[in-house]
Amino acid sequence: MNPRLTLATATRVLRQVRSDHRTLALLLVVPCVLIGLLAWIFQNTPVFDHIGAPLLGVFPFVVMFLVTSVTTLRERSTGTLERLLSTPLGKGDFLAGYALAFGALSVVQALVATAFAVWVCGLDVAGALWLLVVIAVADAVLGTALGLFFSAFARTEFQAVQFMPAVVLPQFLLCGLLIARDRLPDVLQAVSDVLPLSYAVDAMKTVTTSVDAGPDVAGDVAIVAGFIIGAIALGSLTLRRRTP
């Protein structure tokens, strides 16, 4: 990997996203709208404080997975990736550049969504607010990494979108948001233990319920980071120059 080429790729992706107002709205506005709708539905109840923080991580995860998988596939199907890889740019530089670009966007996304949830919607957070932002960023980068990986198995943008329910929905159902993971049947609990979103939701719940959440959150975030690195590494092995 060449740091200069990686940075150049990240800069190119950021320029493309900046000129795409619909994608910017999807990244920055949609999570806030969904969080606001959730707060409105459960106003004057403790439900929003219970599930608001976990969803603050789930929404960026879903959005980043969708945007990254479709954008990467578009680069391949239009022949852009093949032209880029005919230069000194390697697959690792390409994927790392994408991860860096969307990682930077996820920081902005997390700051905007967290600020909106806490100061506009009144989300109650027992732990440090910056931990909430860190976990939200990790969730968004996780969605980016998985989007990069699974985009290699799609031939059209429609197929890329179809991966979302296949990859995201099982994690949403088993992550402990709807029912505590220790109350799941043994088989489903074992599956939940190997899904990265489970640890992200655990970390979000810890921040909202514990004042001294740092040590527990650090372990969950480290596991999520391991999944991110693994997905990017596998993505570099499965990335194809063109869509056949």
UniProtKB/TrEMBL annotation:
Keywords: Antibiotic resistance, Cell membrane, Membrane, Transmembrane, Transmembrane helix, Transport. It is found in: Cell membrane. This is Transport permease protein. GO terms for molecular function: ABC-type transporter activity. The keyword Phosphoprotein does not apply. The chain crosses the membrane at residues 24-42, 54-73, 94-119, 125-149, 161-180, 221-239. GO terms for cellular component: ATP-binding cassette (ABC) transporter complex. GO terms for biological process: response to antibiotic. Belongs to the ABC-2 integral membrane protein family. It holds the Pfam family ABC2_membrane. It is a multi-pass membrane protein. Residues 14-242 form the ABC transmembrane type-2 domain. It comes from Oryzihumus leptocrescens. It comes from the Bacteria.
